[in-house]
Amino acid sequence: MVLPCTSASAQVRGFVTIAPPMLPIYDQPICPGDGYMWTPGYWAWDNQYYWVSGDWVMPPEAGYLWTPGYWGWGGDGFMFNEGYWGLSMGFYGGINYGFGYFGSGYYGGRWDNGHFFYNSTLNNINRNSIHNIYDTKVNETSSANRVSYNGGQGGIEARANSQQEAAAHDHHIAPVAAQNQHAQTARNDPQQRFSVNHGTPANSGGNRSSGAVHPKELPTIEHPTKPNTGNAKQDQKYQKQQDKLVARQNLDRQKLQGQQDREHKQMAKQQANEARSQQQEQRHQRQTQQLQQRHAQQSQYLAQRQSMGGGGSRGGGGGGGGRR
Question: Angle 69-95-318 (CA atoms, 0-180°, nearest 5)?
Answer without folding.
Answer: 165
